[in-house]
Design a protein that fits this description.
Layout: E1 20-22, E2 29-31, E3 36-42, H1 47-55, E4 63-69, H2 71-76, H3 85-88
Bound molecules: zinc ion.
Zinc ion binds near residues 23, 25, 70, 72 and 73.
């Protein structure tokens, strides 16, 4: 049977079972190796108010927040997107899919301008 993806959409390999994580958007239980993991710095004061306060010299605490999303929510939120058959074969990290490094094999037509 033909396969859509070489890794079947997971990083499982032959390890058998992966721990279950919960999607931050919809609450679905997803295997950790299939879920999309997003880690970012979060501040309690956001937007223009936070920028204004930082400009005035106020220290605003930040914390690192890790969230897991199921594939449906990751696509809906624009973190990942469906790719063509040709594009799926390229090994591109999720967090920076459009950067072009020196010696990159990524064709120019896949870059967002
Ligand atoms: Zn979800």
């Amino acid at each position: 049977m033909p396969k859509k993806r070489k890794n079947r959409g997971r990083k499982l390999g032959d390890s058998g079972h992966e721990k279950i994580v919960q999607c931050a958007q919809c609450g679905r239980a997803v295997p950790a190796d299939k879920a999309v993991k997003v880690t970012r710095w979060v501040t309690p004061v956001g937007g223009s108010l936070g920028k204004d306060l930082e400009r005035q010299g106020t220290y605003i605490s930040k914390r690192l927040e890790t969230r897991y999303y199921c594939i449906s929510c990751a696509v809906y939120l624009g973190i990942v997107r469906p790719r063509s058959e040709e594009e799926r074969k390229l090994r591109i990290p999720i967090n920076r899919p459009y950067t072009r490094r020196k010696g990159s094999k990524l064709p120019l037509k896949f870059l967002r301008v």
